[in-house]
């Protein structure tokens, strides 16, 4: 160390490095301990949540079983009769009533035994007491840990055994109604779910301090009784927060969580005594502190080692300068390769960025060209039979009628195809509707007196840009698949309007509906992105061309009308 400690600049740097390393080491140590504490507390939080969920699930299961047993009573006349004998009777009166009303060919039904077999067993010992009350007194069935029943008869309703407390458990009340007159109450059941058997099921959970607290302030300690923490649990319930850190007086700093039951009037309180937690995890914390100290010492030794080499390097430079002063130009000092290496890396990075830029631009332009080529290819796939069919219709009309309508039809057809050939690929909705209207005029000539059309499109849509010649395939589908040649009224309606930030175009007809299986197939093929051949090539091409132009703003749907025909809806979200 003496080789650099004698040089002021390195001495100051070493002091600065030492202060920085110690500061960073202490910060890292504190942060590590804080992270560990946070993880331990989060683990305890998860355990508390799991414990409360288990308790609530057990209570839900118990109440569900009680509800099921009440249904069992109402559905079993003999069991209901025995319950009524038990209600408000003495032990002798209960047995006498049962014997007097028994039949020699039927076994006796015992309400307590049935309840023990069906209810107590399924609730896994949670049910500790059942009482059946009249207005003044009650008959009680108690179960010990082995499920053996004991009985108390004609106990006043004001007796201490009916006082509800957290130490005893949770009381679930159910009215007993007359099965012949359900609105008349003849008694009341009180099922006591014992705290001891219920909370014994969660004592295997890793809980530091846990308690159940009733709304009246009664406390049942589930765990942590050795902490003397009833007062701590009660004080935690006074917090307005449901979880957090709190100081409960003196050195008692805790993390607490409170949960409110949805089934009964109690709160589950969970506490982590931070000082107790640190005492439990002292070994881990000491290990962290030791590792941080070892790391700080190692870093300082490494700094001292590097500074010693730097000091030797500086002494070598000074020695070289003195040699130059004496005209000794034989240098043993290494060349500054670092700057050249960094410059090389910078040049390589610059070249790499340049190459990436060229690559991205090339790929982007190729993608645009590919999409443009695909759009043109799709546009050229539009059904070529349209021209031949239309010309054949005009020829047949001319041969049969020899009227001036033929000349008008030929003029309309010529105008239509001139527009198709000479208009740009991108036109307005208004221009696209003009092309559609010319096509529909020709169809009126082909089906005189049997085909009609209406176009009702708001002006807001007419200026919207779109691709050319996509409406005609939608209309042509109607004539190919939905037109009813035997009907005197075939109608095609085009509606368009603006709503809620989007434009909507509807193409509706009153022709034939599409079978549901075929309709689902068309929908799947409509959104398919691969090149699999499909029967509905017209709709598929229209959707693909519009999707190329509008992107994700386009939505296209096809469905049957309620009465007849098909509706195709095109939605374009404003962008």
TrEMBL record:
User: Where's the HAMP domain?
Assistant: 308-361
The regions listed as transmembrane in this protein's record are 14-41, 284-305
- List locations, semicolon-separated: Cell membrane
Keyword terms of this UniProt record: ATP-binding, Cell membrane, Kinase, Membrane, Nucleotide-binding, Phosphoprotein, Transferase, Transmembrane, Transmembrane helix, Two-component regulatory system
GO MF assignments:
kinase activity
Q: How does it sit in the membrane?
A: Multi-pass membrane protein
**Database matches in Pfam families:** His_kinase (PF06580)
Record-linked PANTHER family: SENSOR HISTIDINE KINASE YPDA, SENSOR PROTEIN KINASE HPTS
Protein name (Swiss-Prot/TrEMBL): Histidine kinase
According to its UniProt entry, this protein's organism is Paenibacillus rhizolycopersici
> Which taxonomic lineage is given here?
Bacteria, Bacillati, Bacillota, Bacilli, Bacillales
């Amino acid at each position: 160390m003496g080789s650099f400690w004698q040089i002021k600049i390195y001495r100051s740097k070493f002091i600065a490095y030492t202060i920085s390393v110690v500061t960073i080491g202490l910060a890292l140590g504190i942060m590590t301990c804080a992270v560990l504490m946070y993880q331990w507390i989060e683990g305890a939080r998860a355990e508390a949540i799991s414990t409360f969920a288990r308790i609530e699930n057990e209570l839900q299961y118990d109440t569900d079983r009680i509800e099921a047993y009440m249904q069992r009573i109402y559905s079993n006349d003999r069991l209901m009769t025995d319950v009524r004998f038990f209600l408000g009777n003495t032990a002798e009166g209960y047995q006498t009533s049962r014997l007097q009303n028994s039949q020699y060919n039927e076994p006796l039904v015992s309400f307590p035994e049935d309840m023990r077999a069906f209810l107590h067993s399924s609730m896994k010992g949670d049910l500790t007491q059942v009482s059946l009350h009249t207005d003044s007194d009650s008959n009680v069935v108690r179960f010990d840990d082995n499920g053996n029943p004991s009985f108390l008869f004609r106990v006043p309703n004001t007796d201490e055994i009916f006082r509800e407390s957290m130490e005893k458990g949770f009381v679930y009340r159910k009215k007993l109604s007359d099965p012949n007159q359900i609105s008349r109450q003849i008694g009341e059941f009180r099922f006591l779910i014992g705290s001891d058997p219920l909370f014994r099921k969660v004592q295997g959970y890793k809980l530091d301090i846990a308690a159940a607290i009733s709304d009246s302030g009664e406390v049942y300690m589930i765990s942590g009784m050795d902490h003397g923490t009833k007062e701590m649990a009660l004080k935690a319930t006074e917090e307005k927060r449901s979880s957090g850190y709190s100081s409960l007086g003196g050195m008692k700093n805790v993390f607490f969580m409170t949960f409110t039951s949805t089934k009964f009037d109690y709160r589950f309180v969970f506490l982590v005594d931070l000082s107790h937690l640190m005492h439990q995890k002292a070994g881990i914390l000491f290990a962290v502190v030791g590792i941080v100290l070892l790391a700080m010492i190692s870093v300082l030794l490494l700094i001292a080692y590097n500074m010693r080499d730097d000091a030797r390097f500086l002494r070598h430079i000074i020695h070289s300068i003195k040699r130059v002063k004496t005209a000794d130009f034989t240098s043993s000092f290494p060349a500054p390769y670092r700057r050249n290496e960094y410059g090389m890396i910078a040049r390589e990075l610059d070249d790499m960025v340049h190459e990436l830029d060229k690559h991205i631009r090339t790929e982007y332009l190729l993608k645009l060209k590919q999409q443009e080529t695909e759009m043109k290819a799709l546009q050229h796939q539009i059904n070529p039979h349209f021209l031949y069919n239309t010309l054949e219709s005009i020829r047949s009309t001319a041969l049969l009628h020899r009227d001036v309508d033929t000349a008008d039809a030929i003029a309309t057809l010529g105008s239509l195809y001139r527009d198709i050939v000479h208009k740009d690929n991108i036109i307005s909705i208004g221009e696209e509707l003009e092309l559609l209207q010319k096509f529909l005029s020709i169809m009126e000539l082909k089906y005189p007196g049997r085909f009609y059309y209406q176009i009702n499109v708001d002006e807001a849509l007419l200026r919207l840009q779109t691709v050319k010649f996509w409406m005609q395939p939608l209309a042509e589908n109607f004539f190919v698949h939905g037109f009813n040649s035997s009907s005197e009224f075939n109608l095609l309606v085009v509606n368009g309007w603006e709503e809620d930030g989007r434009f909507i175009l509807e193409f509706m007809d009153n022709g034939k509906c599409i079978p549901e299986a075929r309709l689902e197939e068309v929908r799947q093929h409509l959104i398919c992105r691969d090149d699999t051949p499909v029967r509905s090539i017209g709709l598929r091409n229209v959707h693909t061309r519009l999707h190329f132009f509008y992107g994700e703003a386009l939505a296209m749907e096809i469905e049957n009308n309620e009465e007849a025909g098909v509706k195709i809806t095109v939605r374009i979200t404003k962008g």
